[in-house]
Amino acid sequence: MINSWENAILPPSATIKDALLIIDSEALRVALIVDEIGHLKGVVTDGDIRRALLSDKGLNTNVEDVMNSSPVIASVGTQRDVLIEKMNRLDLLFIPLLDGKVLVGLETLHGALNDRPNYQNPVFIMAGGFGTRLKPLTDTCPKPMLVIGDKPILETVLLRFIEAGFVNFYISTHYMPDQIKSYFGDGASFGVKIAYVHEDKPLGTGGALGLLPKDLPKNLPLIMMNGDVLTKVDFRRLLDFHNENKPDATMCVREYEYQIPYGVVTGVASKVKSMVEKPIQRFFVNAGIYVVSPRVIRSVPENHSIDMPTLLEKHMVERENILMFPIHEYWLDIGRMDDFNRAQNDIQTLGLG
């Protein structure tokens, strides 16, 4: 039984945002909802939150609206091998332990949380852009090689994947490719394999898929990511989501809020029907991270220029089998100078450096 389960406790009055802070800061992958007398009311997992976001629930939604109020539980004192067998059989990562109705502990499937798997799925990182909006920094350095904290952006991206257990990498290059290749080499110094595909002319994120070698694993989906994005997305969960649902592609999306700075008036003819002062509009935006099936990869001819949204739209027309995966973790696209400066401030506090 782990000792930090008390750190995962929240009251029923907490919000989704509070649960996110727990899930992102603790290694338990769960927030435990407990009332004032210690009774377990429910649990909130990463999956519960993503489903809530897809259902248009905001971060200030009460956890009682999204929690699982009937989780699998066990009595304190249950033998650990019995608990492990139950977690394996039911595909669970944890079981709350109760004394009557009072929460007194949490048993986890220790191996699932701590043993790093070894994924053979290819990881394709886009690193060929010019970084025009970051001039003059990019006059002599490709944007993915700009240093954030004490290492290049691209190295931070690579290390996040390595930490999650991925070992096979491809990097697309175009602008100043030698700087990238000389720094990372074949990946041996990082304990992984790195190969490069070079775009003689920019082909777009989708077009770069057509340059990948034909001997990629035939049945394994590939993860794509822009090389200028800092994020704490859990790539294991992303891949699990894709494998469980088996779409042609999964696109990571991020909720974006925009507040209209005026009162919005609706009406019929000249009659006012409603007035809303400075309403907030919410949208999902493309986060630049994808999981794509071999079918999508094979659909891109060599040296064919196309961006990923256009490529995925083509497959949506054909089969309507493109899914989105909402991310709530830290995410920053380093496209402008203020993004670069923000990343310098964020990198250490977020544990990405």
Automatic annotation (TrEMBL):
The reply on keyword Magnesium is no
**Pfam families, per database record:** CBS, NTP_transferase
Superkingdom of origin organism: Bacteria
Q: Which CDD domains match?
A: CBS_pair_NTP_transferase_assoc, NTP_transferase_like_2
The segment(s) forming the CBS domain are 1-61
Q: Which UniProt keywords apply?
A: CBS domain
PANTHER family the UniProt entry points to: SUGAR-1-PHOSPHATE GUANYL TRANSFERASE (PTHR22572)
State what protein this is by name: CBS domain-containing protein
Lineage, opening ranks: Bacteria, Pseudomonadati, Pseudomonadota, Gammaproteobacteria, Alteromonadales
